[in-house]
Design a protein that fits this description.
Layout lengths: L3 H20 L2 E2 L2 H4 L2 E2 L4 E2 L5 E8 L4 E2 L4 E6 L7 E6 L17 E12 L2 E14 L7 E2 L1 H4 L8 E13 L3 E6 L7 E5 L17 E10 L10 E4 L6 E5 L8 H39 L6 H16 L3 E8 L4 E4 L10 E3 L6 H12 L3 E3 L16 E9 L4 E10 L10 H57 L5 H25 L7 E4 H18 L3 E5 L6 E4 L1 H20 L5 E9 L2 E9 L15 H12 L3 E8 L2 E9 L5 H8 L10 E5 L3 H13 L3 E5 L2 H10 L4 E5 L7 H8 L6 E5 L4 H7 L4 E5 L4 H12 L3
Helix pairs in contact: 4-5, 4-7, 7-8, 7-12, 8-10, 9-10, 10-11, 14-15
């Protein structure tokens, strides 16, 4: 048996020992327990025995090396501390039934440093009650990495930068950088599953965990971690919009397609620029053309190269007759014309539509277009470009190609329309130039006619003398000589008839009426020669600018020659056709004749009448050609520039200086060469006509044949007095001007009451100009 006094003494000593042990733990707050000191941020109470009180924040967190129980300051709720069970006190960790979240515990133990963190290794733990935990603070990854939240349960919202596999668990780094807190999920051993590996870069997550540290060397103020108890404490707030794997090839394909599309657009832009440059060059080439045929050829060649079409045609539109006429070029010389209201093909319908709308028309298949429906024809792709001036459309350019092919890109429409408008202006300029040149040629013909008239008049007198002398010769010789003289005299008369100056006056001449008159005059001669005549003059008038009488004599010469050839032929055929081809009048005179194959009339000097005919037609800007159709069948082809259907407008545009022409024709009778040269200079600068002569007889003869607007007479002419000249010419001349060195009393009496005036010699330019202007202003 144990001695009772000894047992009692032992119990007293044990009680004293326990009391002494309890007194050795110093009570501190959680803030004091976790306080750090410089320079390496070690715990201030490191190694001391302390007693703390707090609220359990989470269940016991088990890791491979230790178990963690975070507690929160019961009074301030602003400080926390980790209770660490590892090594010598690992066996003292409480069970799940002893403590739970919200339990108020009193813990005694020693302050230690674990992986850089201040922890309390408990020796004793007593549950003293329960308390309600506050909501954990919501932080960002940077603000959570602080001693202020060490040991506390916090909530962190951030964006994942990277997932990593650690030696003791899973790690998630935030994108905020190296100073931001990490997420740590402890795993036992080398787990096969990695719960946090499902989170990818860019995911926004919400983490509820305890702020701890994993800093193995001083200073111990870095590498903060948010330890979570389970994967459920990490939730996905907003997933990053990732592309599925199959999208990457699609994106690469789209990028490549974008590059190809960009290259294609650049090539298309360069092609458009080159095409526009070609169109501009085509417009510049027009200025090298001298005729409508050359303009049409330039447009055909350039547009065929630009559009890769099959054909290009240019049509002139006669607004008065409402007729389209194709302008011939090197590829198409045949005539094609049609009325705007009588279209027979889809192409003609499209041309009419382009003129009516004055807009570019493009059709990929003419057989299916609205105007062509119901008309059987081969389909074409068409582009009709109206040639416009500021007031109206005067023609079209027609581009044709294979059906279904677009010939002209829309981006080129403005440039091609500009080219067509330039062509229209150039055609009009050619017409005006042709009219002015033809008018100028008629002026030169007038002067040439007067000279020819003078020469032939002088030639006629010797011929008459020769004919009179033949009367004294023997009858046989006289008859032969007389026949030759008569033939020469007839030739002279015909030349005089053509060259009479008063007939050389440019006016619109209706060829249809001219030929009708000629055929009526020749009708009896054709009937006597049993010649079969056929004429085709067309339904409408065709005008040229020139002298009616002169053209009458020219064509009469050709008709006489053709009739004579047909008279001595076997077929006795005489055919006449009058057509319009573009801006030209085409006259075809076909006849049978006695010529052999390859033979024909001679236009050289041996055939005087035909040589003059050809020269006169060339002076009008025309041409005459002789063609052998076959043996015994021949044709004259005559081409003359024609006017529009309203010749008065063309004529007034070509002659803008007066109501008719505004050109004054004057006669100067003065033997002094100095006066003649000065007057010729004045009239030449004013674009008027002056014929100088030296004697009265020559002047009177010319006044009988030519109508002069004014006669200038010297006070001392050769062959008589100026008064004699006045009495012989004043009834045929509207105005008579006397050139005198001094005023004479007799001249004033003669000039009184007549359209006359006096100019002092030497002649002053201002006086002549004033006189001409006064004459032009008279009605």
């Amino acid at each position: 048996m144990v001695n009772k006094p000894i047992l009692k003494y032992a119990l007293i000593l044990l009680a004293l020992g326990v009391a002494t042990a309890q007194d050795s733990y110093r009570p501190v707050t959680l803030a004091e327990a976790s306080q750090r000191v410089l320079p390496d941020y070690r715990p201030k109470l490191l190694g001391e025995l302390v007693r703390v009180t707090g609220i359990v924040q989470t269940p016991l967190l088990d890791a491979s090396d230790a178990s963690y129980l975070p507690i929160l300051d019961q009074q301030t709720h602003s400080n926390g501390l980790i209770l660490l069970y590892s090594g010598d006190n690992k066996e003292k960790r409480p069970g799940a039934t002893e403590v739970s979240v919200g339990s108020v515990v009193e813990v005694s133990g020693i302050i230690s440093l674990h992986a850089g963190q201040a922890v309390l290794k408990p020796m004793e733990l007593h549950v003293t009650g329960r308390a309600t935990l506050p909501q954990p603070p919501v932080l960002n990854p940077l603000s959570a990495a602080s001693f202020n939240y060490e040991g506390m349960l916090v909530e962190i919202n951030g964006e994942v930068a990277e997932f990593r596999e650690g030696a003791w668990g899973d790690l998630l780094d935030f994108k905020d950088g190296g100073r931001a807190i990490q997420v740590f999920l402890p795993l036992a051993g080398r787990a096969l599953e990695r719960p946090l590996s499902g989170y990818q870069k860019g995911d926004k997550i919400r983490v509820k965990g305890v702020v701890t540290q994993f800093c193995l060397r001083p200073p111990y103020n870095q590498y903060f971690q948010a330890m979570v108890a389970s994967p459920r404490d990490v939730s996905l707030a907003e997933p990053y919009s990732r592309l599925p794997p199959q999208v990457v090839p699609a994106v690469v394909t789209l990028v490549l397609l974008g590059i190809i599309a960009n290259w294609y657009l650049q090539q298309k832009s360069r092609w458009e620029q080159r095409s526009i440059h070609k169109i501009i060059q085509a417009g510049e080439k027009l200025y090298g053309a001298g005729t409508a045929r050359e303009v049409a050829e330039i447009l055909r060649v350039e547009l065929l190269e630009l559009t890769k079409a099959e054909n290009v045609n240019v049509y002139h539109y006669d607004t008065a007759r409402k007729i389209f006429e194709r302008i011939p070029d090197k590829a198409t010389s045949g005539q094609h014309s049609f009325h705007i209201d009588e279209c027979s093909t889809p192409v003609e319908e499209a041309i009419a539509s382009g003129i009516n709308s004055s807009a570019l028309v493009q059709v990929t298949d003419s057989s299916t277009s609205a105007p062509a429906k119901g008309k059987k024809s081969v389909g074409h792709s068409l582009v009709v470009i109206p040639m416009r001036n500021p007031n109206e459309a005067r023609g079209v350019i027609v581009i044709t190609g294979v059906a279904g092919k677009r010939l002209l890109a829309p981006v080129l429409h403005p440039a091609i329309q500009h080219l067509a408008n330039d062509a229209c202006q150039f055609f009009e300029w050619l017409e005006e130039t042709a009219l002015r040149e033809q008018h100028h040629r008629s002026e030169k013909l007038a002067v040439a006619g007067q000279l020819i008239h003078g020469v032939i008049t002088e030639l006629n007198a010797p011929l008459e003398k020769i004919r009179d002398l033949t009367a004294a010769l023997p009858e046989s010789e006289a008859a032969a000589i007389s026949a030759q003289v008569l033939k020469a005299s007839e030739t002279v008369k015909r030349i005089v008839a053509v060259a009479r100056a008063e007939q050389i006056d440019a006016r619109p001449v209706d060829l249809r009426l001219l030929f009708q008159r000629l055929m009526e005059d020749m009708e009896e001669a054709l009937r006597e020669g049993s010649i079969e005549a056929e004429i085709n003059l067309g339904p409408e008038s065709l005008y040229v600018l020139g002298s009616h009488e002169q053209l009458l004599r020219v064509f009469e010469n050709l008709f006489i020659h053709g009739k004579a050839a047909a008279t001595y032929s076997l077929e006795h055929v005489f055919l006449l056709n009058l057509n319009r081809v573009g801006r030209s009048a085409m006259i075809e005179l076909e006849f049978s004749g006695p010529f052999g194959e390859g033979e024909g009339p001679d236009f050289s000097g041996s055939a005087l009448g035909l040589a003059i005919t050809r020269g006169l037609l060339q002076s009008y800007g025309g041409e005459v050609r002789f063609a052998t159709i076959r043996a015994g069948r021949y044709r004259y082809d005559v081409e003359l520039p024609s006017l529009n259907a309203s010749p008065s407008e063309d004529y007034s545009a070509a002659l803008p200086y007066s109501a008719q022409r505004g050109i004054v024709t004057a006669l100067l009778v003065d033997p002094e060469m100095q006066t003649q040269r000065k007057m010729l200079s004045i009239f030449g600068e004013m674009n008027h006509r002056l014929i100088p002569v030296g004697n009265i007889e020559e002047a009177a003869d010319l006044a009988e044949k030519v109508r002069f607007d004014i006669v200038f007479a010297s006070a001392r002419p050769e062959g008589g007095t100026w008064a004699d000249l006045f009495h012989r010419v004043h009834h045929r001349t509207p105005h008579f001007a006397l050139l005198s060195e001094s005023a004479e009393e007799q001249s004033a009496e003669i000039l009184e009451g007549t359209a006359s005036s006096m100019l002092r010699k030497p002649v002053e330019e201002a006086d002549v100009i004033a006189l001409i202007e006064r004459i032009q202003q008279r009605p």
